[in-house]
Amino acid sequence: MNAFSRIVLQLMEHIEYRICRSGEDLESIFRLRYDSYLSVGMIKADAKRIVEDEFDYSANVFNYGVYYDGHLVSTVRLHHVTGEVPVSPSVKVFGDVLEPRIANGASYVDPSRFAADKDWSAELRVLPYITLRLALIACHHFKPTACLTAIKEEHAAFYRRVFIAEPIVRGRIYPGLTTPVDLWQAPCPMSPDQGARRFAFFRSTALERRLLFSPPEDDRSASLTILPSAKYIRHAA
Q1: pLDDT of 206-215, one tens digit each?
Q2: CA–CA gap between residue 67 and residue 110 (Å, rounded)
Q3: What is the 3-state secondary structure (H, E, C) of the chain?
Q4: What angle do CA 179, 181, 185 make, to 5 degrees?
Q5: pLDDT tens sequence across 108-140
Q6: Which of 181, 151, 177, 179 is nearest to 165 (CA)?
Q7: Cα–Cα distance between 13 and 9 in angstroms, integer?
Q8: What b/e string do you get for 50-88 counting C-beta neighbours within 10 Å, with b at 16 or more?
Q9: Are 213 and 142 in contact (CB under 8 A)?
Q10: CB 152 within 8 A of CB 167
Q11: Number of Cβ within a 10 Å radius of residue 220
Q12: Which residues pair with 173 in a beta bridge?
């Protein structure tokens, strides 16, 4: 295992993932998005001081908060896009490209609304890896055709290097943002093998994946906390 993976695995001892479906946890995510996006000029100031949209409440959504020693430090939203539920932000913005593919049987994991606390990001520089790990293991769980991501051009190198992503469509306006985004696609399955060979912390157990991505059996208002499982995998030790 390389030194970088060891560092991230040590930090993940302090990490909890929380599925946020309603209430204060979901509102905290909306506020974190607002503060994060405003600080880098991606949105304009708004009196409500939250960032939310209709996709936060769709049937195929998973909203996650990432907590470090009990502090909310980052968040990401995932959609599992299928022919039965062809709904996600990328489908709305890039529908002319994606909808014909979905009609022909393609499916996608679509991560969006990644945001991180500005102060914690300075201290925990590996937060993008820890947070976007959720998208990678979602691909392992759902086994989609590909993993999508709508990103600004300056973030392209990270997604190309970490997720082996390639651009599909350039320069479109994303609802609520002030800067255009490009649609990128990563092949699936690329995990756990491709990603975990380079980054041991991308590994996950079947139990973690089931807790993260299975629909709730009863109370959808409850928030469920899940611990990362990479350290329990023999190959990650």
Answers
A1: 999 999 998 7
A2: 22
A3: CCHHHHHHHHHHHHEEEEECCCHHHHHHHHHHHHHHHHHCCCCCCCCCCCCCCHHHHCCCEEEEEEEECCEEEEEEEEEEECCCCCCCHHHHHCHHHHHHHHHCCCCEEEEEEEEECHHHHHHCCCHHHHHHHHHHHHHHHHCCCEEEEEECHHHHHHHHHHHCCEEEEEEEECCCCCCEEEEEEEECCCCCHHHHHHCHHHCCCHHHHHHHHCCCCCCCCCCEEECCCHHHCHHHC
A4: 165
A5: 999 999 999 999 999 999 999 999 999 999 999
A6: 151
A7: 7
A8: bbbeebbeeebbbbbbbbbeeebbbbbbbbbbbeeebbb
A9: yes
A10: no
A11: 9
A12: 180
Q: Answer yes or no: is pLDDT of 216 > 70.
A: no
Name the residue among 126, 148, 152 with its Cα closest to residue 5: 126
Using an 8 Å Cβ cutoff, are 113 and 76 in contact?
yes
Tell me whether residue 113 is exposed, middle or buried, using C-beta atoms within 10 angstroms of its C-beta: 0 to 12, 13 to 18, 19 or more.
buried
Task: Find out whether 137 and 204 touch, Cβ atoms under 8 Å.
Answer: yes
- Closest alpha carbon to 120 in 74, 184, 164: 74
How far apart are the C-alpha atoms of 163 and 236, rounded to whole Å? 19
Q: Using an 8 Å Cβ cutoff, are 207 and 177 in contact?
A: no
112: β partners:
77
pTM: 0.90
pLDDT tens by residue, 155-172: 999 999 888 899 999 999
Residue 55 CB-half CA count within 13 A = 25
First to last CA, the chain: 8
